[in-house]
Amino acid sequence: MARLKRAPIMIGVFSNLAEEFIRFKRSLGFKYESETKCLSRFCRFSQKRGIVKPEISRSLAEEWISPREGEATSTRSHRITCIRQFAIYLNHLGYEAYVIPEIKGLTRDSFVPYILHANR
Questions:
Q1: Looking at the record's lineage, which domain of life comes first (predicted)?
Q2: Contact 54/95 with Cβ under 8 angstroms?
Q3: Domain coordinates of the chain in residue numbers?
């Protein structure tokens, strides 16, 4: 029997903005499925920290992206990208939101180029 997937639930001060952001990204053609889960977790995270204004401070952002025990680098990279995009969106709407600088080299590309030479 297949399990039904439930949509992540947004709570707290960022809930409406996160849902609007997801609709916006999807209107641009992005699937935004795993990002929805990430934003749902961020909403719970910020609510647990007592955030009552829809603003992302530098300290909140840095705490959110800090490495977690046993976490893969790619998972952390996804969390950084997700909150970075959300902060950019909030800034465009006029909210104060710290935008995490891009972190180069956090994930390694799995693509390995091979140059094949034809034997002459």
A1: Bacteria
A2: yes
A3: 7-120
Cα separation, 19 vs 37, in Å, equals 11
Rg (CA), the chain: 18
Say what percent of the chain tops pLDDT 90: 73
From the list 29, 42, 31, the residue with the least C-alpha distance to 80 is 42
3-state secondary structure of 56: strand
CB atoms within 10 A of CB 90: 21
The residues, any chain, with a CB within 8 Å of residue 58's CB and separated by 6 or more, are 98
Q: How do residues 49-103 score in pLDDT, each as one tens digit?
A: 999 999 999 999 999 999 999 999 999 999 999 999 999 999 999 999 999 998 7
pLDDT for the residue numbered 8: 85
- Contact (CB, 8 A) for 55 and 96: yes
